[in-house]
Amino acid sequence: MGNNQKIKTSKSLGTFPIVGFILGLLFIAVAYAVVYLTSPNFPSDKPFWEMVKFFHKTNPVLFVVDSLPLVLAWIGLFVGVRQMGGITGRKRLQIQLERREKELESIRFLYNVMFERTENCLFIALPEGDIIDLNLSGAHLLKLDESAEEVLESKEEVIEVLKRRKLNIQSLFANVEDRDRVLEKLRIDGTVSSLQVKLHRFDGETFDGLISGFMGEDPDGQPLIFGKIVDLSHVRQAELLLRKANEQLEKKNEELVKAFSELQAMKVRFENRSKDLEKLNQQLDYANKLLSEMAITDGLTGLYNHKHFMGLLEKEWERARRSKNNFCVIMIDVDYFKSFNDKWGHQMGDQALKSLAKTISSQTRSYDIVARYGGEEFGLILPETDLNTCYTVAQRIRKGVEKKALLIKSQDTKVHLTVSIGVTIYLPDQDDPRTAEQVLQDADVALYLAKNKGRNRVEMYRRDVLSESAKVVPIPEFNSNE
After folding, report:
1. What is the Cα–Cα distance from 235 to 147, expressed in whole angstroms?
2. How do residues 186-197 score in pLDDT, each as one tens digit?
3. N or C: which end of the chain has fewer CB within 10 A?
4. CATH code of domain 119-231
5. Which CATH superfamily is 297-460 part of?
6. Domain extents for the chain?
7. pLDDT, tens digit (0-9, with 9 covering 90-100), for 253-279
8. Any bridge partners for residue 223, and if so which?
9. Calpha distance 417→403 (Å, rounded)
10. Rounded to an integer, what distance in angstroms lies between the CA atom of residue 451 and that of residue 454?
11. Rounded to two decimals, what is the model's pTM?
């Protein structure tokens, strides 16, 4: 088609000036013939140039007529150039249209691949609710084939069933409240993200699902609803199995409690029979108390030990999720502690750790959790604490340790230690998706940042985690040497 256009363009460009020139010559011939026929004294025996002079002298208008072929030729050339420009413009536009069509075809192909191969239910509906498109995974999940009493194996078959039955997304909701909540959020915000609702399959079965979607438009500007449904049935089945297992465990616990009660009764009988046995029990209780304390505390510093700290962190994380209250985690590490031990000995190292534990405890509240995490490392949990307060506590600890002088009696000298501190915060009110272990990992990353940036400083870190149900706000920058 492009070659034909080039040939047509060159013909047009050459034809117009030639035709104009020929028409001009014909007009000159006619004009001269008229003068010749109307002039009785025409010098036909004179030379050619004399006859031309006679024509011009008889009718001066012929001076203008002589230039007419060139004028018409130029006009023809102008028209031809304009026509060629128009054809070239149309050709350029046609090439652009063909390119756009190829791009649109590629986009359609990618869309179809993604739409059909995803395992979740994807659908497209009109604002009034009629479903106009549904992928095969969605058709099977919603049991469209069972309700249609036929096996649906292609997208075309699914669309044919949708057109024939005119299915509506509003009929998918088992509860009117869920339906109104989703449609209202789409109407106001234009989007809905991972809302848990009760849904119907097309065969009437009810199931729990997560629904997401947004308002969009088709190429013609027609508003559409694009949605996704995730089936939570398997999760519910797992919860049911877990519930049954818990019930069995509770029965076992009841049996154990009963057995324990019987043992307690036997203990009472023995206590009544013997004062010595009562004294022994008292001693045993005291020993158990000591063992319990030894099991959760660090023998050197008197702080909680690593194992108990991890258990308390998990409990605080669960409590924060329920109450939507923040909590902070602080990790502290003594700078160059190995060099201190090598220079002054392990006994001075133990005294330094005891002194450091007292300094840390003096800067915390009664309900804050302070533990020796391991070696020269300490961990803190600050419940219901915002980031500014947490940062302030960390700086107080850092400055308190820096100012504290340790007396080396054997050398009659004083030394000062410094600490590096890492801080992070858990924000359940912002749907923070991190686990308790990940929160601790972020505090540890902040501690390593403090180490790498020169030690004796406070650094904060919180990983940037994004999901459909959580959006993490970055922690603001602070001056660690305030």
Report:
1. 25
2. 888 889 888 888
3. N
4. 3.30.450.20
5. Reverse transcriptase/Diguanylate cyclase domain (3.30.70.270)
6. 2-110, 119-231, 236-291, 297-460
7. 888 888 888 888 887 777 777 676 677
8. 217
9. 8
10. 6
11. 0.42
